[in-house]
Amino acid sequence: xxxxxxxxxxxxxxxxxxxxxxxxxxxxxxxxxxxxxxxxxxxxxxxxxxxxxxxxxxxxxxxxxxxxxxxxxxxxxxxxxxxxxxxxxxxxxxxxxxxxxxxxxxxxxxxxxxxxxxxxxxxxxxxxxxxxxxxxxxxxxxxxxxxxxxxxxxxxxxxxxxxxxxxxxxxxxxxxxxxxxxxxxxxxxxxxxxxxxxxxxxxxxxxxxxxxxxxxxxxxxxxxxxxxxxxxxxxxxxxxxxxxxxxxxxxxxxxxxxxxxxxxxxxxxxxxxxxxxxxxxxxxxxxxxxxxxxxxxxxxxxxxxxxxxxxxxxxxxxxxxxxxxxxxxxxxxxxxxxxxxxxxxxxxxxxxxxxxxxxxxxxxxxxxxxxxxxxxxxxxxxxxxxxxxxxxxxxxxxxxxxxxxxxxxxxxxxxxxxxxxxxxxxxxxxxxxxxxxxxxxxxxxxxxxxxxxxxxxxxxxxxxxxxxxxxxxxxxxxxxxxxxxxxxxxxxxxxxxxxxxxxxxxxxxxxxxxxxxxxxxxxxxxxxxxxxxxxxxxxxxxxxxxxxxxxxxxxxxxxxxxxxxxxxxxxxxxxxxxxxxxxxxxxxxxxxxxxxxxxxxx
Length: 602
Hints:
By secondary structure, the chain is an alpha/beta fold. It is 61% helix and 8% strand. A hairpin with a 5-residue loop joins strand 8 and strand 9 (573-575). The chain is elongated, with a radius of gyration of 27 Å.
């Protein structure tokens, strides 16, 4: 037993990482590869046995993992992001839930011959979408902001609602149907709602006050957050079974919308933890599936899938969006995207065991049917949602552009050169004179502090995927780099040197955690570049050829040249740093500063 666990656990982590990496390379949701790996390791190869690996801890582990995942997602739900679409979201998690539930239950009953009790339970589980599959899909599809916000909010809020609905139906079934179960179900619903809102709200508010007043040292924030989430979930479930998901979701939403609270570190930690948990969960749940039961479902199961995808979801969206300002194109995309995720898989596995024990033999078919819907929705929508979004013209442009912090002459010249080469730019500066000149020169510019709450609401980042911090203030550059680290990722954050390093000493002393990559050569500081520009230098684009190489460009005797960016034949731009491994070749272009603006024959 110990030998098996000693080998299985590291292997589980390694396979999970491999699936996530493949998904990143292929730009597909990782759930596909995780499920396939679980099916291969479990039913096919008979190598992975989740019950043997975790024993009685399997379902407590699954429950706590889902709670952490939901809490991490709810921390990103800010009410200011849904102004104008609140009604649509409210309708989707109320009217939309009812429509999806009843249409799916009817199809399951009539097409597969399930009893109404099991059909209604399966329909309740199918109302959930979930952040574990929505967020990766949004990164790939890149729909416009209104669609992305609606899908993200729905994905997180619908999980506890769907779980609660499934619990109510489950309690109704065990209580013996209408005769004994209706009043009992209503009582259970009231308890879940009261406990979830009160416990989640008060705990979220209390933890927010603790963070705001710095009663916990910074390095313990993540530990405290994780311990609190698990404790709230467990205590809530002790008070009323299955109320924990609602409690942790309310707690996260409350924290996300409190003012003057620093959540970036907690979010970063929870995001990494959620990635680990999601990878393990999907593999474990898929490994428990019975392939024979899956194959026995036959063609009627595909018909149920078709009803869910082509009838229930479109009807849900059309009813929910009535009276809203959403265009038909936005509604069509919303109607197409609704992948199922971890909560549906976990709940189906949990209830199947309990219902089979209670004598409902057909409940065994719920798990393979659930996984068929999960795999089908993810596979179909991942492959088609991107092209559909582009066809409907509701997809954001590829995030190739640059957010430039600073709008002084150096930032404006670099921004103009990037714009002339087809890259979207947006400058941000607190100096109105700089912003005014930038706008007069045709450069999009935001007037204000780029790391402020106002910027979070009003600074448009559509089509923007990289940061250039180009102000003459090193601390301001470092602050911007840290603020946008999670937005763009460390590989896409660049800051200019303010002081020239001497034997590496100045660079080491002025380095900041998450300060970004250092732009340009170590001698090309802001002061040097700005001085050359004020003396008449220009930023120009120079093509490289077989006769005029990159070395020739850098060794021109009659013109001082400082390379800033390299543009390859695939129209990909590479900011040049002192540690850059990019070697420009023929047919590339160099965007650089020419200190003596006269013809060089290049």
